[in-house]
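TL;DR need structure tokens for one chain.
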Amino acid sequence: MSMPDLLLIGGATEEMLHRLSEKFTIHALADIADPIAWLAEHGDKISYVATNGHDGILPAYMEAMPNLKVISCYGVGYDAIDTAAAAARGIHVTHTPNVLNAEVASTALLLMLACYRNFLAEDAHVRSGAWEREGNAPLSRSADNQTVGILGMGRIGQKIAKIAKSLGMIIHYHNRSKLSEEKEQGAVYHDSLKSLFSVSDVLSICCPATKETVNLINKETVEYFPKGAVITNVARGDIVDDEALIDALNRRKIYAAGLDVYKGEPNLNPGYLKIKTAFILPHLGSATKDTRTAMANLAIDNIDEFFNTGNCRNKVN
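>> reply
TL;DR here they are.
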């Protein structure tokens, strides 16, 4: 009996490939010279797609697979997948929630602390020999008792709040709706961006990228922050208007920015590279072996669950 066909978009670990190959005939998009032509000939055979939050799936590819049943996304973000179009065709879109919450939250806190304590400059101070020649590096800022504004108090936002609170920070948040007292854990809810930003010593962006959240940080909204605030982003680059943030950093309205995601990544705005208080990471929020293994296993478990039951608990549409 032949195995069902699966289109693999993006990379996969050896373990992922091994597990998938036990049940599916895998067609790697990276190995196909002309995907549109290939799908025109073979698209009707594809029942499953395994992809990631960055690559997603192009609408033209989805349209060329009339018998597609499941799109399994290796990641928590799925904004590169047209979930509405998939739902209209009865295609299940799944993602990998929870297994990466702690890792992404740790990255967010790392960025916050790097901004406050200026770790990169102090590391360079030692490596350059300046410590020996000139003495101690300039004093940095304390993160103690700072007000953290969390934009998007979902699973990752709640994890960031829990860790930040343990470090003596004060938590405020804005969300589509107010959380229960149990989930808030003492955090203060704001029903508008302006209200949240105006009290935020540091903002942690954790919301999904949608039509409503694109460029939420812009020329107008950066003015809501206290002078010298810090902005961090571990969500999606589309939420930030780069030119507006770079301008705010250059004129010191915003003291520092800690970024793990960017518009058009990996081709980030070169303006960030010129700013010493821009701490930039290559989208590594969940990039540890343990977490990526857990994500990969859950992405395959999602496919297995649909394969065996016709449904999936991690469906997003």
